[in-house]
Design brief:
This protein is mostly helical. The protein is built from 17 helices and no strands. The chain has helices at 4-35, 44-58, 66-80, 83-91, 100-110, 116-124, 130-141, 149-156, 161-172, 180-189, 191-201, 208-212, 215-218, 223-236, 242-246, 254-269, 279-293. Helix 4 runs antiparallel to helix 5 (100-110).
Length: 294
């Protein structure tokens, strides 16, 4: 039988183990909070540089060498570093701020992946300026990290086509292929605007499942839909579907024939698309591809 002293010592030992386990677990939560970054605090000199360069950039049209003036002052703002993004966010709260697109480009240049948690906060903040939420959706989507699914889902529900587009793309490359519609619509509306962005992200999910999301477009009676589907196929289609794409080489629509050729060039040969392909060259290349695919 244990003595009362033994029971006391045993109880104390158990309490000690529980306390140790609690203390051992605590640092992880504290560490997570500690690891969340903060925007660098701007010095008075840095803030003055940003304000003056922003004004000079906006007035550059008055100078003979306008492009050089813009480049000089934009570079000065970039040199400030990540803290310039926080400054830009606050500037963009003013709907009448001058050169908003330049401020967004400044954010693209100075914000690194380390600041993703702070950028994601802007995406989910309903009070954040629209330009900021657009930047945030674009930035977070490029992380291709399931940890930001919730933020991107919130972005997808925002009543703005650009925020929805970037958020949808981010979710699509995480495997949610139900989010094609905003991507398809953006690609159809202004291909040149988003081509590089889509080319950077979509190939990460290239495969037959991703390609199947384009079925409606590839079988559409609308030329623009077929063209858009073929352009997206450059990034989503695996080589195994080349015969499916090859069927469109016989299209009597020049643009569809051209984009079928371009899709095959990218998917099969790994070559750049030919954006300026005339009718006669398209017929020639289509015949060559049909011979290859037999």
């Amino acid at each position: 039988m244990y003595s009362s002293r033994s029971r006391t010592l045993r109880g104390a030992s158990l309490l000690g183990l529980l306390l140790f386990a609690t203390l051992a677990a605590a640092p992880s939560t504290a560490q997570e909070k500690k690891q969340k970054p903060k925007w660098p605090k701007l010095s008075r000199t840095e803030r003055t540089t940003l304000d003056r360069s922003h004004t000079a950039y906006a007035k550059a049209d008055e100078a003979e060498d306008a492009d050089a003036v813009r480049a000089e002052h934009f570079d000065r703002m970039v040199e400030v570093g990540a803290g310039a993004a926080r400054w830009a966010f606050r500037k963009l709260e003013n709907d009448r701020v001058v050169e908003p697109e330049m401020l967004v480009e400044l954010c693209r240049r100075v914000v690194s992946e380390d600041y993703t948690p702070l950028v994601a906060d802007e995406l989910v903040d309903r009070k954040a300026p629209l330009h900021v939420r657009r930047f945030a959706a674009e930035f977070v989507s490029q992380r291709q990290d399931e940890g930001w699914t919730e933020a991107l889902t919130t972005g997808f529900e925002v009543d703005d086509e650009r925020v929805r587009f970037f958020s949808a793309t981010g979710l699509f490359v995480l495997g949610d292929f139900t989010k094609l519609a905003p991507i398809f619509e953006a690609a159809k509306t202004d291909w040149s605007r988003d081509q590089n962005y889509l080319e950077h992200l979509l190939p990460s999910v290239r495969g037959e499942d991703a390609f199947e999301t384009l079925d409606d477009g590839l079988g559409s009676d609308r030329e623009r839909d077929e063209v858009t589907a073929l352009r997206l196929a450059r990034f989503l289609a695996p080589e195994s579907v080349k015969l499916r794409i090859g069927l469109l080489l016989d299209s009597d629509r020049h643009n569809v024939k051209k984009e079928a050729i371009n899709a095959l060039r990218v998917i099969v040969d790994g070559k750049e698309p030919l954006e300026n392909l005339d009718v006669f060259k398209a017929i020639q290349f289509a015949n060559e591809w049909k011979a290859r695919l037999q």
